[in-house]
Design goal:
30% strand, 26 strands, 4 domains, Molybdenum Cofactor Biosythetic Enzyme, Chain A, elongated, six-stranded mixed beta sheet, alpha/beta
Length: 405
């Protein structure tokens, strides 16, 4: 009996250990995954800093207005004022500059009138306004040295990379990218750009699988196209010795020409399952070959890409130490009525639009045939129909899985 999607995913993820950590320059850290928690090495800002252009003053000197003060210097970002402010004095200050010693407030330049600016005897009169604490960013306002700001398993986007740099890190402890080797199989396949002969088609599935794997954080090696012979398959499999995951496309069923499973078993693969209660994607194979996990995807284009999204992406995330099992479908509303589902979990290709209540409004694409790439390219999510789900009316809540991430 075919496994459920949940049980198949559980077997695929069972016992996964994250890849080892490696030190990586922060310039190359984008979209990589932290192997260890990251604490700040610096305090940010490292001093009380002006948030405005204006004058650094003592709050007591501007408690009553107007108030005229002697301007004794200026402070700019990277060029602090070296002295100290005393009673009746002010320092011209610019955004980002350290607050001079003795000052405890900044008045904005719009509330002042200057006299003899830039010359001896310069003065400033504060004409209006009250002290605004927001005009000074206190030391440690953002974070302090020793504070843990990023957790292990966090994937680093632009914001996280910028934060890590501000925290004082030049190198980061990151998970090694999982190595995913992808092999297309079939006598009918020709490389992209080649002209197909009689009975042949262009191999395209591997490119979509590779793109999804790379987006999830993997390092991908394309092994090419193996022909439907034991010798060709064996030669191609030999090139995947260092892979964390070996992905095959096509030939994983039980037909006379489906040799992927037998050849892998002859190389020592322990088969876990080869059939699941899912559409598209029923003939999915999974096994273990040494330390590598083997995922045999169906040859139909939509089936291979949907299975990649549902099974390979969580596996890569687990290898990166991310919460792979924690991804749950999002809630949306169906724009049309949906028929009752059969015994296999159905991942319907669908498009989404903004709904009036904040939830996405999803519409299945024109055809759910597992061989059609054009409708798949129109879709941006998978509408999940559980086994034996009843008919639902338009506007009902349904679970969806975003296809891109």
């Amino acid at each position: 009996m075919p496994l459920s999607v949940e049980e198949a995913l559980q077997r695929i993820l069972e016992g996964v250990e994250p890849t080892l950590a490696e030190a990586v320059a922060i310039e190359a850290a984008h979209r990589r995954t932290l192997a260890e928690p990251l604490a700040a090495l610096l305090t940010q800002p490292p001093f009380d800093a002006s948030a405005m252009d204006g004058y650094a003053v003592r709050a007591a000197d501007v408690a009553r207005l107007p108030s005229t003060l002697e301007v004794i210097g200026q402070a700019a970002a990277g060029h602090p004022f070296a002295g100290s402010i005393g009673p009746g004095q002010a320092v011209r200050i610019f955004t980002g500059a350290p607050l001079p010693a003795g000052a405890d407030a900044v008045v904005i330049q719009e509330n002042t009138v200057q006299e003899n600016a830039g010359r001896d005897g310069a003065r400033v009169t504060v004409t209006e306004g009250s002290i605004d604490k927001g005009h000074v960013r206190p030391k440690g306002f953002d974070f302090r040295a020793g504070e843990r700001l990023l957790d292990a398993g966090r994937r680093l986007g632009p914001r996280e990379v910028a934060l890590a740099a501000a925290m004082g890190h030049g190198k980061l402890p990151l998970r090694r990218r999982p190595r995913v080797a992808i092999l297309s199989t079939g006598d009918e396949l020709v490389a992209p750009g080649a002209r197909p002969g009689p009975g042949q088609i262009v191999s395209s599935n591997h490119l979509g699988v590779a793109a999804l794997a790379e987006s999830a954080g993997a390092e991908v090696e394309l092994l090419g196209i193996a022909r439907d012979t034991r010798e060709s398959l064996d030669q191609h499999f030999a090139r995947a010795q260092d892979a964390d995951v070996l992905v095959t496309i096509g030939g994983a069923s039980v037909g006379d020409h489906d040799l992927v499973g037998p050849v892998l078993e002859a190389r020592g693969m322990a088969l876990s399952f080869w059939k699941i209660a899912m559409r598209p994607g029923k003939p999915l194979m999974f096994g273990r070959l040494g330390r590598a996990r083997v995922l045999g995807l169906p040859g139909n284009p939509v089936s291979s890409l949907v299975c990649t999204r549902v099974f390979l992406v969580p596996l890569i995330r687990a290898l990166l130490g991310q919460p792979a099992g924690g991804e749950h479908p999002m809630q949306a509303r169906t724009a049309v009525a949906l028929e009752a589902n059969g015994p296999r979990q159905h991942y319907m290709r669908a498009t989404s639009a903004a709904g009036n209540d904040g939830l996405s409004l999803v519409t299945p694409v024109r055809s759910q045939d597992s061989s059609l790439l054009a409708p798949l390219a129109q879709a941006d999510c998978l509408l999940v129909r559980p086994p034996n789900a009843p008919t639902v009316a338009a506007g009902s809540l349904v679970p969806i899985l975003p296809f891109d991430f």
